[in-house]
Amino acid sequence: MLTRRDMIRTAAATAGGVAASSLFTAHAFGLATPAPKARAAFRGKLGKLQILQVGVGGSIAPADRSELKAHPDVVFSGLCDVDSDALASVSKEHPEAFTCRDFREAFDKHADKFDAVVVCTPDHNHALVDLWALRANKHVYGQKPLVQQLSEVVAIEKAIAARPKLVTQTGNQRMGPEGRQYAVDILKKGLLGKALEAHVWIGGPGEGTDGYFWYGGLKDPIQPPANIDWPLWLGAAQDAPCRPGLISLQWRSSWDYGTGQLGDWCTHLLDILYFSYDLPSPMSVQAHTLNPSDFYHARGVMSTLTYDVSKQPNRAMFAKDRFVVHYGDQSQAPSRAELGLPPGKFWGSATLIVCEHGVIAVEPGGAIELFIEGKPVDFKTLPGVGKITARNHWHSWVDNILGQTTKSDGFVQTPFHYSVRIAEAGLLCAKAARFPQTELLWDKSKLAFTNHDEATKTIVTREYRKGFELPTVIA
Length: 475
Description:
Layout: H1 4-15, H2 26-29, E1 49-54, H3 61-69, E2 74-80, H4 84-91, E3 98-100, H5 103-110, E4 116-119, H6 126-135, E5 139-142, H7 150-162, E6 168-170, H8 178-188, E7 195-201, H9 230-234, H10 260-269, H11 271-277, E8 284-289, E9 301-308, E10 322-328, E11 350-355, E12 359-362, E13 368-372, E14 375-377, H12 393-402, H13 405-408, H14 416-431, E15 439-443, E16 448-449, H15 453-459
Parallel strand pairs: 1-2, 1-4, 2-3, 4-5, 5-6, 7-10
Antiparallel strand pairs: 7-11, 8-9, 8-15, 9-10, 11-12, 12-13, 13-14, 15-16
Helix pairs in contact: 6-7, 7-14, 8-11, 10-14
């Protein structure tokens, strides 16, 4: 008798075995897509993909859960959160799901009850839970920026190499609609000529605000709320006191728990560059700021990433042997006059690529401005532009796991293969602000800045708490 477990495993082994680089549609990204194959119908409760969600509250977890449970072949069979109030509230929506506060318990005691894991914890525990899931042969949807330490980039890359049949996806929902996909199509096809450089910027954060980010000074320790298991919240991080605002939102600006504005947004801003040009690991980073990082990430940063593309298979896509990306916060956009563009204002956040024959700017939501010879052009009239179809970012992940590629054309927007490299770039920019005005030469193969021992010791990895060390995933 073919069980639910057998069906999920069989579908995952076939659909998930596709190399990450071929999970993009041919018409949108110029990449080969395997022909869809017939799959057993997934109908009835036993045929559904059973998902464990780690981190059920906060700002993004409810949206992820809502989108996924709208898929007809999904059921949430497990819920985990260090917040007992959030866990109790969400469990009312899924009364048949098991609950726990320690994610390790879910894998140790309930691993046979779920096939995939959605990870919505604060950044400092992303890699930890992702790796537990991969080691347990579970498909993973991991929230961005996927990792919080540069050393975790390599750990994730090794894990996905050891688990090539698993389908991974990162929380990059902005790549689902048409806009950003059109930008990739234009650049991938070289419709604007060879790439010269890129400018990327994010608006904010404000100073001393009580919102999503906090840069107003270190707050005094407090007793953790009664509903929070503080040691479990800390997870991979070292023992430290609870502080106001950290648990709800402001961990994002903390050096120990978040990745700052540049790290938090890199997946939504640098993605176009990686999908279009398949960039290698940066060779150097230099951050300029008047506010060096301490307990918090720096505010008011402009970083420069330099990539050596001289030996890349797609070297012909670049105008020079070095490709440079400028990435900053506080809406630090380039000069329009310098770029030969008409007077005006850029969006508060955008990704802008300068090519030989034109300039394209893309807003996070997907709006596009295209300039050729300094004049605005409707991008859809550019010869060679393909027909792009919007996709449900969450459902594509599910469809690929179940082998239902006819629903999503085999398309997963941001598999770990790409998102971990995007996170590497964002982390380099955010963390280099601890050594402002200093060019750091990065060698990922050695996990070291070859010209700066102190930076290597300070911003590459962390010491993990006992019991929360990163697991090793082997084939």
